[in-house]
Design brief:
Elements (H helix, E strand, L loop, with lengths): L1 E7 L5 H11 L7 E7 L10 H15 L5 E11 L2 H14 L3 E5 L7 H6 L2 E4 L7 H20 L7
Parallel strand pairs: 1-2, 1-4, 3-4, 3-5
Helix pairs in contact: 1-5, 3-5
Length: 156
């Protein structure tokens, strides 16, 4: 199974890239994590937020693994603690298909994309910078895996 994080935005600070790489390499061979960075649609030139999100939606959909279970990160999604995320990860692994976790751009994700997702979750009640969301997500996915595997990384 592969966890594919599809994130709008191609430029992140070096510290965020380094942190992502550090956590991504820790996953076991049977649970690979991949990042697909999607170009942010320019907001200049008279485009509305809805038009920009629609253009980003097309790029996101093109990047999704075939038949993936789609999970949207959304401030209105279900809040999960670490144990609940570990349970979700176990469920996702039981599906026998890749899982795509979507992180939106400056205005979020296109409403149609949010609605078509299999699940909507939120990482925090706080508003976080996009680079931080990537790092937080990959760390929490690793923590969920380590909890399920009985690995000592997670200490409750």
């Amino acid at each position: 199974m592969k966890l594919c994080v599809v994130a709008v935005g191609q430029r992140v600070p070096a510290w965020a890239e380094a942190a992502w790489d550090d956590y991504a390499k820790r996953f076991p061979p049977e649970l690979k994590v991949e990042l697909k960075a999607i170009k942010t649609e320019p907001r200049a030139g008279g485009k509305t937020a809805a038009q920009a999100m629609a253009a980003e939606r097309q790029r996101i959909e093109a990047a999704l693994p075939k038949s993936a279970h789609v999970v949207v990160l959304d401030e209105r999604g279900t809040a999960l603690g670490t144990t609940a995320l570990a349970e979700r990860l176990t469920h996702w692994q039981s599906l026998g298909q890749d899982v795509a976790l979507l992180i939106g751009g400056p205005d979020g994700l296109d409403p149609a994309l949010r609605q078509s997702a299999h699940e909507r979750i939120r990482l925090s009640d706080l508003t976080l910078p996009h680079a931080m969301v990537r790092v937080l997500l990959v760390e929490q996915l690793y923590r969920a895996w380590s909890l399920n595997a009985g690995h000592p990384y997670h200490r409750a």
